[in-house]
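**Folding the chain**
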Amino acid sequence: MFLGLSWYFILMDFYLYSFFGWIYESSFCSIKAHKLTNRGFLIGPLLPLYGFGGTIVYVFLRPLTPHPSLLYLGGMLLATAIEYFTSWGMEKMFHAQWWDYSDDPYNYEGRIALVPSMFWGFLSLLAFDFLQPALNSIIYSIPRQTGLILLTVVTVVVAADLIYTVITTINFRNQLETLYHIRDELIAQLEEERFSSLRQIIFSKIHTQNERAEGFLKRLEELKETYSGEDSKLAEIEQRFREYKERHTSFQKKNPFFGNKRIMQAFPTLKFIPESVRKTGRKPVKILLKDFLLQITEKEHSEK
C-alpha cells in the first residue's frame, strides 16, 4: 500500500493514463499534421509522461478534492515539474531536447511554458471529476487474478519496448552525430574564398535537399574546369559531399513505424546538441532537427 492505495491499483492507473494520454496526443498531432502520427517515446500505444503525471496527481492530491482551486494549482505545479525533469533527464541521456516551447509566451528553457502548465491544471480537474472515476470503473471491473496477469504481460512488453526504443534512439543519435561530423568536415573544406559559391548552396534556404545536391555537384563540375590543376582538392570535396548525401538519404529512409522516421514524426520540434559543441564547455547550441536535415545556418555553424 502507498498513501492508502495498493500498488496493483497504482500500476493499473499508470498504464491506463499512459494509454489514454497516447490516444489524446496521437489524435491531436495526427489531425494537426494531416497524417497518422505515433506520438511518444515508446513504439507501443503508451505515453508514460501522461501515466506518471495522471497517477502522481491522483495519488498525492486526493486530499485537495474538496478545494478545486488548490487542486488546479497543485495539478499544474506537479505536472509541470514532471514535464520539466522528464525533458531535462532525456536531454542528459540522449543529448537532445525532445519538445520545445521556445515560441510559447512565458516559457522556461523551452521545456515548460505557462499555457501548457495551465492546461495541466485543467486536466487535473478533469481527471478528478471524470477521468479517474472512469478508470476506477475499468480497474475494479477486471477480476484481480486477470488483472495481475494483464499487468505482468503488459509490464514485460513495455520493458522490451523500452529496451528496444533506447537502443534505437542511441543508434539514431549516433547516426545524427556522424551526419553532423561529415557535414562539419565538408564545410571546413569550403572555407577558401574560391569555394564561397559552394557554401552558399549548402546554406541555401530556398531549395530542397535534392535541388541543393544537384546545384552543388553542377557548380563543382564548373570549378573543376576552372581549377583544372587542383583536381585533388575538388575530388576530396566531391567525395565528402557524396558521402554526406548518401548518409543523409539513408537517415531519412527508415521505416515510419520504427527507427529514425518514427522518432522524427513523433517529435517534430526535436533539437540535438552535437558532441563537438558539448565538448567546448560553452552553452550548448541546440539545432532543430528538421532544419538541420535541410541545412544548418551559418550562425549555428559559427557558434560552435
